Amino acid sequence: MRILISGGTVVTASGTMPADVLVDGEKIAALTTRDNFAERRSGQPAANEHVSAWAPAADRIIDATGKYVLPGGIDGHTHMEMPFGGTFSADTFETGTRAAAWGGTTTIIDFAVQAKGTSLLSTLDKWHAKADGNCAVDYGFHMIVSDVNDTSLKEMDACIAAGVNSFKMFMAYPGVFYATDGEILLAMQQAGRSGAIVMMHAENGIAIDQLVAQALAAGKTDPVQHGLTRPPELEGEATSRAITLAKVARSPLYIVHLSAIHALAAVAQARDAGQNVFAETCPQYLYLSLEDLARPGFEGAKYVASPPLRPPPHQQTLWQGLRTNDLSVVSTDHCPFCFADQKELGRGDFSKIPNGIPGVEHRMDLLHQGVVTGEISLSRWVEISSTTPARMFGLYPRKGVIQPGSDADIVIYNPLAKQILSVATHHMNVDYSAYEGMQITGKVETTLSRGRVVIDAGEYHGSAGHGQFLQRDLCQYLQ
Ligand code: DUC
Ligand code: ZN
Ligand code: ZN
């Protein structure tokens, strides 16, 4: 199957150009620029002899006039079917990857979760059993290490050989995922020796648990307490501590879901000093705030995630961090729990509300708003949502770029279309939208995953099992 995408503006991390793209099978076969000058003069896509040469050979021509042609989005942080707080996140690998495709994301990297007392390799098998044959787009795994011992430390190398070379650890959630500083140091040393990377959930969980107990003892049970008992200082402190541990262990570090000014300052300082520290933020920290957690009644439960949403001034600093590259990736931390029967578990006790916000479908759109409002450039949009995640997680240039030889993961994006985000129209398997009613400029028109059109003109054409497991290389910023 050959598909010609003609008339569009190709946007990559390195710039924009009027260009036509030829897809052959699962790969991008060729890219040809059109005459920019003639195109600007006439306002029409320039006639191009390459296109006319290709057109007869194409089985299908997609007219992308007036649209952006982007490398498919890569969401490096999702939780499908994640066990949490006595329940499971509501999207399966099938529903979650389908929703991702609707939103222009063609790769997810999800987290396999080691339960205490189990091995990393059996965990990996378990997550393959959940995902293999069910995904609509390509997927990889990170590994959550929640039981550091000699066996799991040794197993890290076997995970790397199996294409899973990023290990998430938690300074939060004592008794569940929490690791001590000593355990973190050991895992970082092991990762550092093997060229792998530790991803850190940086919140001081020991101190947070005391604040939570105090709030509950004082009868403060509403969802907003979730935010008030996890102050940004305790994210900043944990981030600094993780950075210090990584320095001593001589390992790189990736801070996940960074939400607070304090944590960003610690990351910026470490990067300025030359340390291999990277960080991601998430759309919810750019657009939502503590004020959402404080919505009346139990409504705030929809916004309970960790780290929590912060007061509005943090948002501007995070946008600034995206511009300066102290934040280099935006992932969603997609972790959906239904309001009706899952968030409900924490009515009367905010500490029992399952932590997570749905978002895998909306990341590209929400970040495009940053282009519309002038927070980031078009190329930076592509860089933070596709190209850098590809490099960070060992997928480049197979993913993250439009160039001959790369997978034909391509999004055709209409920058002028208007849409309103809503539970009534989204495709995630969850009964509310954290962005209900939000007006968006821009919309995905077509999504190709490895050369197959999975979304087009408001219809889904994909299938469970099309998505393949991605055996990832090591982080390409470290080689
Ligand atoms: N944070 C969340 O909000 N949900 C799942 C795990 C996490 O770290
Ligand atoms: Zn986390
Ligand atoms: Zn997460």
Structure, explained:
- By secondary structure, this protein is α/β, with parallel strands linked by helices.
- It has a domain at about 70-390: Metal-dependent hydrolases (TIM Barrel, Alpha-Beta Barrel).
- The protein is built from 15 helices and 20 strands.
- It has helices spanning about 35-40, 50-55, 95-100, 120-130, 150-160, 180-195, 205-215, 225-230, 230-250, 260-270, 285, 290-295, 315-325, 365-370, 380-390, and strands at about 1-5, 10, 15-25, 25-35, 60-65, 70, 75-80, 85, 85-90, 105-115, 140-145, 165-170, 195-200, 255, 275-280, 330, 410-420, 440-450, 450-455, 460.
- The strands form three sheets. Strands 1, 2, 3, 4, 5, 6, 17, 18, 19 and 20 form a ten-stranded mixed β-sheet that branches. Strands 7-10-11-12-13-14-15-16 form an eight-stranded parallel β-sheet.
- Helix 5 links the parallel strand 11 (about 140-145) and strand 12 (about 165-170).
- Helix 5 (about 150-160) runs parallel beside helix 6 (about 180-195), helix 6 (about 180-195) crosses helix 9 (about 230-250) and helix 9 (about 230-250) runs parallel beside helix 10 (about 260-270).
- The longest helix has 18 residues, at about 230-250.
- The protein starts with a strand and ends in a 19-residue tail after the last strand.
- The model has no long low-confidence stretch (mean pLDDT about 95).
- The structure holds dihydropyrimidine-2,4(1H,3H)-dione and zinc ion (2 copies).
- The site of one zinc ion has 3 residues, from loops.
